[in-house]
């Protein structure tokens, strides 16, 4: 089965795992999803992740993060740029998510980075998602 939007699938699997209060979720791996997972761990939204090689595509096993009351650290995941409607921003119009309480993840010529890092490097790109 071909998938038209693997990033939306990635975010939906995380969202569904959080709603069911799962300890971890398994997501089909790709280089872009590995980079997204690296950003999520750097920003403190997930506990850890590993890449499980299975001889085919591989899997990303991601441990979700909850607070002491079993409330999710991630409140909202929003896909911005879709295959039917791409959303690009310049270096002067980078998004601020929840007044910098959340993050915007962009794919730029410098790689997959957050909007804050894009502002430091003075680059724009395609806005993949907002997370807070």
Low-confidence stretches: none
Look at the helices and sheets and give the structural class. Answer: alpha+beta
User: What integer is the average pLDDT?
Assistant: 96
Helix content: 25-40%
Work out the radius of gyration.
Answer: 15 Å
Shape: globular
Q: Helical region count?
A: 3
Main sheet properties = 5 strands, antiparallel
End-to-end C-alpha gap: 31 Å
Structure description:
The protein is α+β, with helices and mostly antiparallel strands. The protein folds into two domains: 6-64, 2-Layer Sandwich (Ribosomal Protein S8, Chain: A, domain 1); 77-131, Dna Ligase, domain 1 (2-Layer Sandwich). It is built from three helices and eight strands. The chain has helices at residues 6-19, 31-42, 115-121, and strands at residues 24-28, 46-52, 59-64, 77-79, 88-89, 103-108, 111-114, 125-131. The strands form two sheets. Strands 4, 5, 6, 7 and 8 form a five-stranded antiparallel β-sheet that branches. Strands 1-3-2 form a three-stranded antiparallel β-sheet, covered by helices on one side. A hairpin with a 6-residue loop joins strand 2 and strand 3 (59-64). The radius of gyration is 15 Å and the shape is globular. The protein starts with 5 loop residues before the first helix and ends with a strand.
Topology record:
Layout: H1 6-19, E1 24-28, H2 31-42, E2 46-52, E3 59-64, E4 77-79, E5 88-89, E6 103-108, E7 111-114, H3 115-121, E8 125-131
Antiparallel strand pairs: 1-3, 2-3, 4-8, 5-8, 6-7, 6-8
